[in-house]
Amino acid sequence: AAAAAAVASPLSRSRPQSVVVHSNPATPTPQQKVRRASSLFSRKSPASRMNLMQELSQTLIEYESVEPIGTAMVTKTVKKKESGFLNSKKGDRVYLLSKDGPKNCWVVRGMNRYVGILPPSVLTEDRDPRKDPSFLKFGCGLEVSAAAMGWYVPYMVDGCIQALDPKHLRHEGLFRVSGATGQVEELKQGFERGDNLLKDKTFPPEAVAGCLKQFLRDLKPRVVTPAAYPAFVAAGRQAVDSERIAATRQAVKTQLPLPHQHLLRRLMPFLQRVAAHAEVNKMTSANLAVVFGPTLMAPPAVAGGDLSSILNDEDAVTRVTMTMIDNVRDVFPDDDNDDD
Question: What is the pTM of this model?
Fold first, then answer.
């Protein structure tokens, strides 16, 4: 049971110093890899399942905090009971962690942050976004970039979150206290070159948080697009909690392009973990919503320069952002994480 829990649980807080790479003395052909990986699907004996479970529980945990080497699209729905396999729907995007995983499968991480294995026969690998500097420029558009690269969560967003989580979750004033302009700019220029400076150099958490906020603020359009803005504001004005949650979920699902949905799915669980340490870091979900509400959503242009309606929206913007932070499982359920 303990071994099964190790595989099925979300990412641990530990960050391994090294990764064990599994390989065979004689490299099999792609056809052999597919056949061997596929053979795992038909294993029925309890002994075989237990052996696989023990092997995967010891191996996959080593990949939990590994930085992705790329992304891939799932081309065939995988729903298997065998321990270690990542249940995925056709069209899902996954992060590639290693191509040398157990049983000739690839080690992947889903958008829900679970780690598992999938056979290469059900995956189509995307190009590495770090090799396309134009994609890494601040001020780009999520939808255009994702269409070109097949990469729904930008490399710099993942890089900043991984640098802060879990090491700096308890840092007082995280996202409220501004980072040094020079350090934020250094990180930005590094990401735009395709170089994550956070891997080899220590930056204050304020600088990392500032870089993440700047990237989100510079998006054109913002994460919550002008077209989706009215639906989010309407959701934030719902007085009853259950109705506000339902309206927020509906706004995310029906009003936002898929790349924008995936970014929120990555960001909001992280902000929820920040808020969980509010007694120490002083950043409650309400405080985080005040910071991230205007960062994530900008209203449509106001005709005639009348800003009164925008000012009236401030409370609703904060409330709907707080709703997403506090109710991640309800607003972003696993069964909505597909491309249908």
Answer: 0.67
